[in-house]
Amino acid sequence: MEATTGGFDAILLPAAQALISGVLVGGVYGLLSIGFSLAFGVMRIVNFAHGDLVMYGMYVGVVAAGTLGIDPLYAVPASFVLMAALGALQYLLVYKRFVGFATLQQLLAAIGLGLALQMVAQIIFGADTRAAPSLFSAKFLLIGPLFVSEAQVVAFAVAVVATLAVEALLGGTHWGKAVRAVADDIEAAEIVGLSSQTINIGAFALACGLAGIAGTVMSTYYPTDPSKGLSLMPIAIIATTIGGLGSIRGSFLGGIFCGVVQQLTALLWSSALQDVPLYLLLLVFIAYRPTGMFGLRTE
User: Fold this and answer.
1) In-domain check, residue 24
2) What are the residues whose beta carbons fall under 8 Å from the beta carbon of 189, sequence distance 6 or more?
3) What's the CA gap between 252 and 191, in Å, rounded?
4) Are 52 and 117 in contact (CB under 8 A)?
């Protein structure tokens, strides 16, 4: 009987550990996916440079810890502001002419912008991998036989708060209603006196600011380098596809789902192949449910 119980625990406990870790990591995936989804939902912009803004947010944490000597978490507001400003600049210089049309030219412009951001990061920060130690780094909470990273718990909490704040902003404020009006019908919004240009700049800046927050909290447990943004983009694409392009809540839940699938795959199969099931799911959703779980439309 004891051997049976021990064998059951040997299976159940690692699975529970993977599930908890997947939820915590997935919450931050969800936050970085929300910005990607917001840009598409409002402006039909597929921002392939979004991951690079996450990478710059991670470097904000690196600079805060390594140069300023402060905890990276204190730099979260600054990261939001800096990435929002950079996002507004990107919109004005690159994306403004593509609003409403996810064309091949827009995709190529986004890819080129992402490559430029990577090269600038390599010039400024170098090609080496860098970390941003936090007060919570390398610390763990024990929950019975399970343990969780304190840095990941804090990052998840920040991601949840930021997600709720975005939902409240878009759903309960005059500006949020204006954003949704422009997303639904830009010409009608202009007729009633809304400035679609100003609203789009603000919405795109918000999307990029969220990428900055995600990057900075992620830097407390995940080292970065100039190519890190490129490796994170598939997660953002898959999470928003599964959750539903344009859906804030769906993108967040899609990120959690991606985190859980990654961790369970690493446990049951191989950590080197943890993204393979996600790519298969991406193909399934594109083929059979392109609107995702919570998306309303795809045009």
Assistant:
1) no
2) 178, 181, 182, 196, 199
3) 33
4) yes
Q: Is residue 46 part of a domain?
A: yes
Answer whether residue 283 is part of any domain: no
Stretch 269-285: mean pLDDT, rounded? 92
Number of domains in the chain: 1
State the CB neighbour count (10 A cutoff) for residue 113: 18
HSE-CB at 32 with a 13 A cutoff on CA atoms is 37
What average pLDDT does the segment 145-167 reach? Answer: 94
CB 83 within 8 A of CB 209: yes
User: Residues 223-271: pLDDT tens digits?
Assistant: 999 999 999 999 999 999 999 887 899 999 999 999 999 999 999 998 8
Q: Is 60 exceeded by the pLDDT of residue 6?
A: no
From the list 13, 8, 181, 201, the residue with the least C-alpha distance to 96 is 201
Question: Which residue in this structure is represented by tokens 């763990």?
Answer: 140
Contact 285, 297 (CB under 8 A): no
Write out the residue range of the structural domain in which residue 107 sits: 31-138+149-223
CA nearest neighbour of 196 among 44, 5, 14, 37: 44
Predicted local confidence at residue 49, as pLDDT: 93
| pLDDT for position 185 | 84
Nearest-angstrom CA–CA distance, 154 and 24: 9
Angle at 259 between CA 212 and CA 59, to 5 degrees: 25
Between CA 12 and CA 58 the distance in angstroms is 34
Q: Please write down the long-range contacts of 99-102, taking CB distance under 8 Å and 24 or more positions apart.
A: 99/43, 99/44, 99/45, 99/186, 99/196, 99/200, 100/43, 100/44, 100/186, 101/44, 102/40, 102/44, 102/45, 102/46
Report the pLDDT averaged over residues 105-116: 93
Closest CA to 222 of 167, 282, 262, 166: 262
248 in any annotated domain: no
Residue 157 has pLDDT above 90, yes or no: yes
